Amino acid sequence: MNDVTITLLFLAFTIILYVTEKIPLALTSMIVCVGLNLTGVLTIKEAFEGFVNGNVILFVAMFIVGGALFETGMASDIGGVITKFAKTEKQLIIAIMIIVGMLSGVLSNTGTAAVLIPVVVGVAAKSGFARSKLLMPLVFAAA
To answer: Which of 39, 78, 106, 118 has the fewest other C-beta atoms within 10 Å?
Structure first.
């Protein structure tokens, strides 16, 4: 088999396992990297190069921080403070956009959005407004 066929087979395998989640996603990724190396499609360096990319590490770190905010209840507490000042949905959207805009002015846009997603979900839970109406302005303000 040529490299293209092998790669497409691994792609199909990956898509099926990502959708079904029969095994953990991280293990699926590792299987694909090792498999592409063992079949000679990629070298070891090429196969694992994406895992040391600074953006990937940033994403992982920011999601860990965001998850910690959510699990400790801090996101809900911050949501309570924000909803204390913003009573209507429009005021809430403006408050979220101002906070996100100021943070993404000095921090990474992606990192800011990743950290504040749990906070906005907490705000939505406290205020009773739909998450989707608050998350879209968050992403726009981060950009």
So the answer is: 106
CA angle 46, 52, 56 (to 5 degrees): 115
Map residue 49 onto helix, strand or coil: helix
- DSSP letter at 52 equals G
User: What number of residues does the chain have?
Assistant: 143
| Alpha carbon distance 82, 134 (integer Å) | 13
- Collapsing DSSP to helix, strand or coil, 1 comes out as coil
Take residue 80 and report the two structure tokens written for it.
């309570």
> Does this model's pTM top 0.90?
no
Over the stretch 55-109, which tens digit does the pLDDT of each residue have?
A: 778 777 877 877 787 788 777 777 777 777 777 888 888 988 888 888 888 877 8
Q: How far apart are CA 138 and CA 11, in angstroms?
A: 32
In the chain, which ranges are continuous DSSP H helix?
3-20, 25-38, 44-48, 54-71, 74-85, 89-106, 109-127, 131-142
